[in-house]
Amino acid sequence: MEICYVLDASAIINGFKINSNNNYTVPEITSEIKDLKSKLTFDMLIEEGNLIIQDVPNKYISSVNDVISMSGDILRLSMPDIKLISLACMLQDEGKDVKVISDDYTIQNTLKIMDIPYSGVMTEGIKGIYNWKKVCEGCKKEYDDDYPFDDCEICGSRIFKKRIRVNR
Ligand SMILES: [Zn+2]
């Protein structure tokens, strides 16, 4: 089954790559997209039919409200955020395979509690960015990749190459 993506404002602002036309969002999102570039992207997605704006019945909103009043996230979520999570619930209820795209920590936290799959754009973006570092076998001193020798200048042990994750 094809995955339905539910996009929040951060997904559009941070440039989520849209590869299908199974993308949904809520009408309230327009108030959260303020910069010109994101507005243009948003308008284009609507025009090309790749983003469906979908309102959500109240029953889904109240069940999300129940969850977030228990978790304490209710004070940190805006109305568009709550509607977005409700939309994901509604689509799941319709039997669809749903994934929410959001870089908002509070939204992600609520989705985790509700067992709804999610992913961030920024975090997705840094996945797979690795660098090589040279590390001494003996004293563990780290050298830059361009260190020209095979043994450590401190202890004389062998240096090996190690893949390291780059955090930005
Ligand atoms: Zn060493």
Automatic annotation (TrEMBL):
GO terms for cellular component: preribosome, small subunit precursor. Transmembrane segments: none annotated. GO terms for biological process: maturation of SSU-rRNA. GO terms for molecular function: hydrolase activity; metal ion binding; RNA endonuclease activity. Pfam families: PIN_6 (PF17146). Keywords: Endonuclease, Hydrolase, Metal-binding, Nuclease. Residues 6-91 form the Ribonuclease PIN domain. This is tRNA(fMet)-specific endonuclease VapC. It comes from Methanobrevibacter thaueri.
